[in-house]
Amino acid sequence: MPATDYRGSSAPLTNIGRSFLSLRRDQVHAMESPNHGSASHEVELESFQRQVADRFNDLASVPSDELLSLPWVRKLLDVFLCCQEEFRVILFNNKAQVMKPPMDRLIADFYERTVKALDVCNAIRDGIEQIKQWQKLLEIVLCALGDSNVNTNTNNNGNNNCYPRTLGEGQFRRAKKALIDLAIGMLYEKDSSQGLAHRNRSFGRNNNSGSHSKDHHHRSLGHFRSLSWSVSRSWSAARQLQAIGNNLAVPRGNEVVTTNGLAMPVYTMGSVLLFVMWALVAAIPCQDRGLQVHFYVPRQFSWAAPILSLHERIIEEFIKWRSVRGCWVIWLILCSFR
Amino acid sequence: MEKDHQPEKSSSFNKGDDDHKNSGTDNTLPVTESPECSNEKKSAAADITELEMEKSEEMKTGITEIEVIEKPEEKEKDGGELGEPTPPPEIKYTLETASEDIERFLLNLSTPKDEEVEAGLETPEFIEKYLDLVEEKISKHESPDTKVKGCQLPEDDASFLKVVDQISKLYKNLSSVFRLDSNQGPLINRIGKIQQRAMSYLEDEFRSLLEESRIVEPDQKQEVADQCPLPGQDQSAESNEESNFPGYSQEVLANLNKIAKEMISGGHESECCEVYMITRRNVIEETLNKLGFEKISIDEVQRMQWEALEREIPPWIKAFKQCANVYFPGERKLAETIFSDYPSLSDSHFSNLTRGVFIQLLNFAEAVAISKRSTEKLFKFLDMYETLRDSLSAIDSVFPEECAKELRAETTTARCRIGETAICIFCDLENSIKSDTGKTQVPGGAVHPLTRYTMNYLKYACDEYKDTLEQVFKEHAKIERADSTSRPRNYEGDSENYNDDEENHSPFSGQLIRIMDLLDSILETKSKLYRDVPLSCIFMMNNGRYMLQKIRGSAEIHQVMGDTWCRKRSSDLRNYHKNYQRETWTKLLGCLSNEGLSVNGKVVKPVLKEKFKSFNAMFDEIHKTQSSWVISDKQLQSELRVSISAVVIPAYRSFLGRFSGYLDPGRQTEKYIKFQSEDIETYIDELFDGNPSSIARRKT
Q: Which residues of B598-613 are buried (b: 16+ CB within 10 A; e: fewer)?
């Protein structure tokens, strides 16, 4: 069994957290800004918009089947970190402006969004652990069904613990057992609210009274436990996304003027943040998943087109996947009681 | 069976079945066998007979030889063990004897026999019998009835595990020789099924042992405490309870270890690890819950009222300390005990299990650190800071190298963040002092609430957290130096200022001195609100004295502020004192001057009368106003009175002595000399009491 490496997966999220927090530090410690010519200032703001657009165009250029895949999610996080970094540079170069109203309020709003995003990141990290658990169950299935590549055994007695040459009833039962656990795990993910324990128990009971009276293969169903979430029970990804998007509005003309154009990157970064968090929730299971977030970006922003198209495609994929998964889970359950 | 079986029933694993001893004579097939199984057996048996026809001559003789040699030995051995008359050999075929056959068979398989392997191996008949017996044994173990009968027979567990081990080996060996679609297929299939069933059973046992056989700690603690009433033994009782975690008996641990070993060598490592991880994760979670640590999202922390958030911090501290010092080392030991033969497994299990919990704990610290700052939060923040700081060595010792490195970095980051927040709180304190521009005067020039608050706050901070604060400012102040908006000067500039007159200041004492100076200048501004100059002096003296007394009253804050600062402050106070004397009493003494009193050596009576009159009036007035002023510090109060008396009384006495004779005795004297020097002393002693009193009123 491969030693699970959590670092690999949580590192980008940790970085996001770090990045959020150091942003705040900049905000607290902002001092007088270096004197920038207004021309270079405008160039800076424009290049930021363009870079965001380029990066998201790149993200949007994947075929649908790669959308929400782990490599894509990793790329998404990279894009976010790059945008965030450039955003920080802009703020750093305009510290004097940042301290003054109305920029201070806009920055404070953005900061609040990022804090909310931290919770999404934590929930996503839980989700990754959940996926790893599913992966392990699938590894059991593959191992049972004879794929000897799956089980890189730490037990180095030279044993090959998979028996690729024979595929007997024992193996089938082993695979089935793991699949049932997986099905229940995914069902749990689907409606993560209460009632799981009850359902599990009834599974267990059905099994025991079933035809295999001596069969203990399903007894563990009554014990099936999922890893618990590190967020509180009442926490909801859907609500959190809504909170991140709260009051995220295109800056008004006078706001743009009084902030010397800085309101634009703040709005841009806010939208990027909301989209990235939303996409993470779409890609990775987490508590009370829901994608019904009001998401509107006017087309005049160069980055609006790729983000809106991604948004649309992800919703499509998500719905497709959900229905497939739903069928699959039901199929698994039906099979397992045959 | 279904009804009887309850998941919460404790494991049968170390209970065993009580008819174990009878199993020697009991060789009937399991009654509860499914039809499926017996069908297979028949077909497998058929296969074997077929195979026997085909088998080579050498093989045949080889096997029979073994059988022939074995049988008498078994009889002897069993007879000796059971102490019973030897039953007829046809009936007497127990699991033990079958096991020995299988053992030999496996040994035979593992010794290389070049041609034979290629020719296709023989599977002897006794395998089927053996499998029947194994199935029977598993059924017995699975049956809830045996669980209810709580007779402990650990040697039965051992024999069960031995059988499982054998089945796994048999399956592995045979399945690598025969294909499922070969003649031996049905037999292989049967062995595979039995092996899977045994593994599944072990998995359940492993889970329930992990879940249900923990010793309940509180009861035991109570007992230990009751037994040892000696106060010196309290600690040992407590550490006993702590070392109890995770609370499995040696016997259970040994069983867990054996099951894990069997599952892993039987190829069910993933199942075993999954069960272990999930079960332990839930146990840790439950344990933290019991300590009162709750999951609160970062966003929630930001929105919580401080009163509510404050209540969450002590449980967090307790949870963190317990994890670092008790639970994590306990988990590590547990993983090492259960997976003793697989050090890399135990390492990765331990790391993966505890890492998540640890990160969750750190999350709370970070969430608190970025919550809205306020001065009242400082002390709880510092408590958390200390907890994070002090747990570092525990992390180093308990986590494997790689993981320890990462967690140390995470802990340090969280600690830095709290440290920075603590420093910001001091900036906030500065700002709140600066912005205290209220115009209300404190009546009687008494100590200002701002002085009281600030001094008590700082004194408490020093008394309880001096070393921590010194560390915080040393380690985390660097970033702050760049921050010029919330503070007018930086540390370097400050220490230069003070370098002139004193040893190098630590960053923290620099901060404290800056706050004191700021407080001083704010008080100075406030003192101007008093129209009476002497009263503003009294106000400054009161507040200055208060500050000094607080600093001198605590070795910690005194050390931070330094002697130089205290000396300077004392001399400031003396100046206010002098000012006050001058403003009030020098003026009064002006009335008693000789100036214009005598012209050509003769005393001018009207001038003398005027002098007495004005002295009386002025003293009366001073007494009237200043007796309502407040000096709450008794020492300062008496110092002032003494110093006033020392100036006023001798001057008045000598004036009286020199000039009272010039006034006509009787009416005139009575009119102009209202005070004897003793009266003056009495009245001076009534000053600064905060009770307005009038001489005139009392005289009438």
A: eeeeeeeeeebeebbe
pLDDT (0 to 100) of residue B519: 94
Report how far residue B337's alpha carbon sits from residue B346's, in angstroms, rounded to the nearest whole number: 8
Cα–Cα distance, B100 to B426 (Å, whole number) = 78
Q: Does the pLDDT at position B276 exceed 80?
A: yes
Query: What ipTM, to 2 d.p.?
Result: 0.77
B508 close to B514: Cβ distance less than 8 angstroms: no
Give A-chain residues touching B209 at CB under 8 angstroms.
Answer: none
Contact criterion met (CB < 8 Å) for A29 and B483:
yes
The beta strand positions in B55-202, using DSSP E, are none
User: Is B267–A205 a contact, with Cβ atoms under 8 angstroms apart?
Assistant: no
Q: Give the nearest partner residue to B484 out of A31, A115, A230, using CB atoms.
A: A31
Q: Which of A111-125, A292-306, B174-188, B401-415 has the lowest mean pLDDT?
A: B174-188
pLDDT (tens digit, 9 = 90+) per residue, A181-229? 888 777 765 544 333 333 333 233 333 333 333 333 333 343 445 556 6
pLDDT tens digits, one per residue of B626-654: 988 999 889 999 999 999 999 899 999 98
Q: In three state form, how does the secondary structure of B64-98 look?
A: HHHHHHHHHHHHHHHHHHHCCCCCCCCCCCCHHHH
Closest chain B C-alpha to A309 CA, distance in angstroms = 30
CA distance A251 to A52: 18
The Cα A218–Cα A222 span in angstroms is 8
Contact call for B483 and A116, based on CB within 8 A: no
User: Count of CB contacts below 8 A, A vs B?
Assistant: 202
DSSP-assigned letter for residue B23: G
- Interface probe for B, chosen from A32, A115, A206 (most Cβ of B below 10 Å), is A115
R_g over Cα of chain A: 24
What residue in B sits closest to A210 (Cα-Cα)?
Answer: B2
Minimal Cβ distance to B270: which of A139, A205, A231: A139
A321-336 mean pLDDT: 72
CB contact under 8 A, B175 and A163: yes
Please say whether the beta carbons of A330 and A194 come within 8 A.
no
pTM recorded for the entire structure? 0.76
